[in-house]
Design goal:
It is a single chain. The protein is mostly helical and 656 residues long. 66% of the residues lie in helices and 1% in strands. It has a two-stranded antiparallel ribbon with strand order 1-2. α3 (69-83) packs across α21 (490-519) and α4 (91-103) packs across α22 (527-545). It is globular, with a radius of gyration of 25 Å.
């Protein structure tokens, strides 16, 4: 049982995070308040709230509690769901994305003649002065208060574009909610999928419910783990603010120790990052998965060297024009086929559940919702189809053809479903795609599959929600579904979720517009945001000026990736002793694994050694040490985020 107060608290705190995030991340360039699928600010608040509630229960409310552990966990879940919307999950590049075609147009690039006419007029402000004010800021905006800035924003110019995009964003959210609800029973109840990122919040709040919160936080193994990041970041933080103090290195460049040619040439840019929190998550992840992550990452480097040894010098130009955020070489497009086969594997595992849901939906049978579901699977089925149909109509209304719109939206949500599985099962607090969803369509069908306006629309839509998944919504929704598994008041959760999503989008847009109009977008820390967005428009222009057909190189590697994934899936299902999990192959070329591979190596090694030589008893005791690594890292991240507000610059504890 939960009370409405925890829902209200979670929504309010989540909206506060959304309001503060643009200023903190883009103006102060401080420690990101979100930053991934285990966001900093919500967990920092959860730690403080748990300690405060435990102290209040002991000193003030001796019999009653202000909030139960489950209620604290639910509040944290609401904060997690909305925290990414204000930054990489939506607002970080949104306003640059919808205005780039006119603002960055020059005589040299001829965007006004080639690109701008293809952008639907309703997607961007028609008033050129409103766009210039966005980038230059209001006159004297630095001296204005935030309420004055909000009052001076030309809302009339932005009302139309925000309404048009608001429909798209909320319909996408509806489809994601229905997909999560449709698969939650299969993943949570049927497959008993592990959720490593939920382990620490769950252990902490369960200890609080059992009256053992102080015992949890004073566990000697946990305190030992906390001391490692506290010591590390105290020294490095002092060194950041006072360069005279030497820092402890957390990044080691291993590339110079490997040759630039030959079998090991793929490691010429190898880096080793030391993040205590990610080592903790790796320890809590299933050994088979943590092993797969670092093994496949290293195999990816060896494959590059193997091609060179056999004389296959595949030029990067063989890729053609692609939109993948980190796609640099043709062999990395294996992931296109691998994602497709793994999606089919997910569907095959859930075939009985999906068949039952579809049957109940078609026959209008009223089946009760499972513990992990907010509403029945049959209703999810109709909600998914309705949302997809409305999204298709939205695309067709603005100029995209029907078949490309259907296929594009289908690919969007296939990628989102697979990425959600990777993040939730693999415990990846930080994740990036290798290839963009449109890369597969362009490789197999060529740019002629889309009309000119359809190609432009696809690129912009993809950039808004479906290419940078570091703070994407759907994995957070799946985590929230798991958090609410033991909550009976599903309507309260679902109603709160709907309110939270709508308000979070509104607050995030308002906060970003206020920041841009106060300081001017050009004066913010937006080099990456501008570069990647302009790159999208440049790629579209290349395809418009030189249309491409099917890419044989990408098709070949995509087929190879599909074959490899099929073999991995078959071995995983057929042989109980098989040590490799297919999900590791999907992250082989992800830029996130360049940061995380060493953490998973250390976490897997510690997990393996404790279970082998100490059994389950030692594993559970040592587990608290790794929980301490996570708590300590995020505690220091929260402290430096607060310091950064007052100091004007912040030492970064976690990757940005």
């Amino acid at each position: 049982m939960i009370r409405a107060r925890c829902v209200v608290l979670g929504i309010v705190l989540g909206l506060v995070i959304c309001a503060v995030t643009p200023f903190n991340n883009m103006y102060l360039a401080a420690t990101p308040l979100g930053g991934g699928h285990f966001p900093l600010a919500p967990f920092f608040i959860l730690i403080l709230a748990t300690l405060a509630a435990a102290l209040a229960s002991r000193l003030v409310f001796r019999r009653k509690t202000m909030l139960t552990g489950l209620e604290l966990l639910v509040s944290w879940g609401f904060m997690v769901v909305v925290s990414g919307i204000a930054y990489t999950g939506l607002a970080r590049t949104f306003f640059i994305n919808v205005t780039a075609s006119t603002h960055f147009a020059t005589v040299g690039n001829r965007w006004k003649e080639i690109v701008a006419p293809l952008v639907p007029p309703a997607w961007m402000p028609s008033d050129a002065s409103a766009v210039e004010t966005l980038y230059n800021g209001l006159e004297g905006g630095y001296r204005l208060g935030w309420l004055d800035v909000l009052a001076k924003i030309p809302w009339a110019a932005w009302a139309g574009p925000l309404a048009a995009w608001g429909v798209f964003i909320l319909l996408c959210s509806l489809v994601m909610v229905c997909l999560v609800n449709l698969f939650s029973r299969q993943w949570i109840s049927n497959e008993r999928m592990n959720f490593p990122l939920l382990r620490v919040p769950t252990h902490m709040t369960e200890a609080y419910d059992q009256g053992q919160a102080f015992g949890f936080f004073t566990d000697r193994y946990l305190l030992l783990g906390v001391c490692v990041p506290v010591f590390l970041h105290t020294i490095n933080g002092i060194g950041f603010y006072d360069p005279a103090v030497p820092q402890i290195p957390t990044l080691f460049l291993l590339g110079p120790y490997f040759p630039t040619t030959g079998f090991f040439s793929g490691f010429s840019k190898l880096r080793l990052y030391f993040y205590p929190a990610f080592i903790g998550f790796a320890y809590l992840t299933a050994r088979q998965i943590s092993l797969s992550f670092w093994v496949f990452y290293l195999l990816g480097g060896l494959l590059f060297g193997l091609f060179e040894v056999f004389g296959y010098q595949i030029p990067s130009s063989a890729l053609g024009v692609t939109f993948g955020p980190t796609l640099t070489r043709p062999e990395e497009t294996q992931m296109i086929g691998a994602y497709g086969v793994f999606f089919l594997f997910i569907i095959w595992l859930a075939r009985q559940h999906l068949f039952t849901a579809a049957r109940d939906a078609v026959t209008f049978r009223r089946a009760p919702a499972a513990e992990s579901e907010w509403f029945s699977a049959a209703l999810s089925f109709w909600g998914f189809l309705s949302g997809l149909a409305l999204l298709t109509a939205w695309c067709v209304y603005f100029g995209m053809s029907l078949v490309p719109a259907l296929l594009l939206l289908g690919i969007f949500f296939v990628i989102m479903l697979v990425a959600t599985r990777i993040i939730c099962q693999g415990g990846l607090a930080y994740f990036t795609l290798t290839a963009a969803p449109t890369d597969g369509l362009l490789a197999f069908f060529g740019s002629g599959f889309f009309s000119n306006i359809g190609l432009m629309m696809a690129a912009i839509m993809q950039k808004v929600l479906f290419v940078d998944l570091r703070e994407s919504l759907m994995p957070s929704l799946m985590h929230f579904s798991k958090v609410g598994e033991n909550v009976r008041q599903k309507r309260l959760l679902l109603g709160g979720l709907a309110v939270a999503l709508v308000l979070a989008v509104a607050v995030s847009f308002a906060a970003m517009l206020a920041l841009c109009h106060k300081f001017g977008l050009r004066d913010l820390q937006v080099d990456w945001e501008t570069q990647t967005t302009v790159g999208v428009y440049e790629n579209v222009q290349r395809l418009l000026e030189a249309p491409s057909g099917p890419n044989e190189w990408i098709i070949g590697f995509a087929v190879a990736g599909a074959v490899v994934m099929f073999v991995l899936v078959a071995c995983y299902q057929r042989f109980y002793w098989w040590p490799i999990h297919p999900v590791g192959y999907l992250t082989m070329y992800s830029s996130a694994m360049r940061i995380l591979w060493f953490s998973f190596l250390i976490g897997w090694m510690c997990n393996q050694l404790t279970l082998r030589y100490g059994g389950v008893a030692l594993f559970r005791r040592v587990r608290m040490l790794f929980v301490g690594l996570i708590i300590g890292d995020f505690l220091m991240g929260g402290i430096y985020a607060v310091i950064g507000v007052y100091a004007g610059q912040s030492y970064l504890v976690l990757p940005n």
